[in-house]
Amino acid sequence: MVNNDLDPYNLNIIEEANKLRIQNNLLDPYFNLINFLDLHNSDERAVLCPLPNDSPELIACEGSCSPFQKIIYIREADYNRLVDLSKNPNLQLTALDKRLRFTIAHELGHVVLIGNDASYLFFRKEGKELPPYKDPEKQANCFAAALLVPSFYYLPVFCKLSVEEVADMCKASIACTRRQLGLYQMLLEIYPNSPRIRMLLGGDLI
User: Stretch 140-165: mean pLDDT, rounded?
Assistant: First the structure.
């Protein structure tokens, strides 16, 4: 039985998250999403659009996106909070701040991945059941977690630290960090001799 976390499609998604970081020279463990979306939108990845706090588009969610138009929507209050945090790196992030970072990274995942394989849209329209690794929400979650807790730091740095220390470096939640570190360790255990996996985990940086 295929482990959904280890399906080659999801490995491709992790590589897409790494590629976005590397192409934009954003290699620090902490990925400043606000700065990236405000300052790097010339690469046509996405534009961050704050909406009024009572906007009907965000009544039932913290964020949404128009992937083909490459627009990510969040509440104005949340945007202002994250802007303050991006300008003051010494400020302590709350659990809500970290969840908002994951939400934006998730929506960015929809924008990035829609250009790679939009076949799941047709599956959805036809009412067909999707395998978990092709579910667009799971794909976006995979992208967000890999963007916030980058795999290429695993062998050089992360594997020597506690979950709490890595979460603090990446400004990610404990749950997200624990899952990613567990996934990276699992990849290494299952594919110990794979050049692709070792490169994915930063083996070429040791």
Answer: 96
